[in-house]
Amino acid sequence: MASQQVNKKFVVVLVTGIVLLLGVMLVAYVTFLRKSGDDYARLGDQMMAEGNAKQAGINYGMAYGHDRSRVDWLEKWIGSLESWTPETRTEYSGAYRQKYIPVLQTLSQVKGGGTDIEAHDQYLGLMREQSLHSRYSREGADAMIAQSENAYRFFEYTPSDQTEWKRLLRYRGLAISRIISEGATLDEGMHEQSVEDLTAALSERPDDSESLRGLLSIRLRDAYDARVDDDFEAAQTLLDEARREVLAFTKTNPSSPDGLLAKLTVEVEQLRHDTMRENASTGQTGRITNTAQFKPQLDRIVSLVEQDPTAPGTARLAARFRVLEASLDPEAKLSRSERMARLLVEQDEKDASALMLLARILEAQGETDEQITVLRKIQDLESRPLSLEGMLQFSFQESALGDEAMAYLTNLSKIEDTPENEAARAEQLRQAEDARRRFAQIVPEGNGRLLMVDGMIALAHEDYPKALSLFRQFNELASYQDFDGLWREAQVAMLLRQNGVARDRLTQMRDMQPRNLPATLMLGRVEIYLNDLDGAKDLFEEALEIDPTNEVAIDGLREVRQLLGELEVEDPIVGALLESRRLLGGSAELVGDPRASINYLSGQIERLEYDPRIARELAGLHLGQNEMDEARNVIHKAVAKHPDDSDLKIVQQALLADNLIDARIRLYELSDAP
Asked: What angle (nearest 5°) sits at the alpha carbon of residue 283, between those of residues 278 and 284?
């Protein structure tokens, strides 16, 4: 009975609640009908006068709902939104996506009967800018194309002598250009459409440097594809076309830093083309070396920016300039880019994008202390009123926290691991973990950047298995397309002797950057461990083509040739190590056998007076067989013979800790490649 009474009460409460809710809705509806659009507009004006932009926006929205022909109310609605600063990031993001963007789009479609070019330009320009700060996706590019084509339909019946609207064609052309630069598949006619759109936009506005860049990226990508197909003549034709387009732009805009940067880009690409064509004809693999000729042009671009640092697009130009300067004048250590970034910050000390550009330049220069200072400034910026800049500032502030944690970890790596530095190292690690904690509060679990930070912190704690797991998760999330993530996973995999994993990651890195020297050298070492001596030889020879004086490549090639029997071994220690590794890795005639390698070195170590290199190698082999006591015994005898060898003492200490993984790591870090 009690349960039936409870159910009756519940029904009564429920029905009463529904009646009350319907009453509230009815009152709200009647109130809405009783007030006219003018009433709501006046309320909006009153709220704006009182400084309540949020409530003003609600009233302007209600006013526009009464009369959708009142563009002035729509513009007031946008003005109120742009005067409002939502209190939380969630509220900000929701207002931006669900109110600000749709209202701007509505304005573009109704103002002037949908033929107001500036209204379309404002909306499409915002969408374009937003896409540039997002990871590329084909869906996003296709959406940009569709939005552009929706705008063009309003001008289908415009008289042929009224061509100003054609500057809007840039947005479709730029979206397709980005698809082309990513090497993605195009629908039929899209390539030609992009060139046509960008050419039309430039003819309407000859100072449209962004359309020039889009056109240039198409030409250079097409030239690259032609060279891949060994069609150097077609590639040269495309470069000639790019040069003509750039020269036409610079003739009309002689003081444009964008134009000069485009001209420099074409000249560098021409030099690269000539080098590759010569390599193809001679069968050699050379690289561009004579880049000093470009330094005056780099200086000229900086000079032009200094003359007008407030020009639109300067921040994006500075970001592109940074990449080119690093390539053409590495000795300058981005000094020109730093000048440009500091100039942008001087113009607006609250510009998050300029501050982040400066922070990343400082990071590349190794100036981590000042980098941290700049990153803190980004984090301390007050929220901006509702806008794309405000949304981007949140993204920069998020990135700044992750970058700060990484900066402290970089500082940690610079401090030598000695007893007297223990306190300083501990403080850097504490700061990194504090930044990581603050970072984790604003990003979702499983965030890629957070995984990278956690992996680096695990490395600092020498927890190598955990670090490897975190870097693997990061790379899975990044679809194995992040160079830094691949590099870190490869390094830790080698430390843990997971050479197959290291080979996979390094190969993926070289697919992305075929002439990357560190990846080539490390892969050569991995191939030795995996006993692919011919592959290792090819890699070290390739490394010497990239840098003929590289000592690591020279030593690696010598070692491989000794292992292959192409060179005699004069040093008995080196000879013993090579024979041990031959027994360990095996060959076409011999199956690899760790026990055979252990037995061989055990028979040689007394004759070689417990040389530290032999002792570390033998101890490592014992550990590989989980023979901790035997490893300790070898190192103990070696320390007795060589009491001043600091590396042996480090290994001895690691073995005393009874930590098998740590001992293996220490032995690997201190191993001597013969």
From this structure: 75
**SS3 at position 261:** helix
Percent of the chain that is helix, strand, coil (3-state, to 5): 75, 0, 25
CA–CA distance, 540 with 524 (Å, rounded to integer): 6
Instruction: State the residue for tokens 């909306």.
Output: 123
pLDDT at 16: 53
CA atoms of 403 and 372, how far apart (whole Å)? 8
pLDDT at 561: 87
In 34-148, beta strands by DSSP E: none
Note if the pTM is more than 0.90: no
Residue linked to tokens 């949020």: 54
- 3-class secondary structure, 586: strand
Q: Which amino acid is at 468?
A: L
Q: What averages of pLDDT result for each successive group of 10 residues across the chain (674 residues)?
A: 47 51 51 75 96 95 92 95 93 94 94 93 94 86 94 91 93 94 88 96 95 96 89 95 96 95 95 84 65 93 93 90 92 96 95 96 95 97 95 94 95 87 94 96 91 95 92 94 93 85 94 87 88 90 84 87 78 81 59 79 90 87 83 90 82 67 56 43
DSSP 659: -
The total number of residues written for the chain in this structure: 674
Full DSSP string of 516-580: -HHHHHHHHHHHHHTT-HHHHHHHHHHHHHH-TT-HHHHHHHHHHHHHTTSS----HHHHHHHHH
What does the alpha-carbon distance between residue 534 and residue 528 come to, in Å, rounded to a whole number? 9
Whether the CB-CB separation of 169 and 200 falls below 8 Å is answered with: yes
> Could you give the CA distance from residue 200 to residue 202 in angstroms, rounded to a whole number?
5
| Predicted confidence (pLDDT) per residue in 592-608, tens digit | 578 888 998 999 999 98
Task: Give the other-Cβ count within 10 Å of 161's Cβ.
Answer: 5
Amino acid occupying residue 563? L
Q: Where are the alpha helices (DSSP H) in 308-351?
A: 314-328, 335-347
DSSP 286: -
CA distance 241 to 539: 37
Inter-helix orientation angle 388-414/368-379, to 10°: 150
* Integer Cα distance of 264 and 246 in angstroms: 10
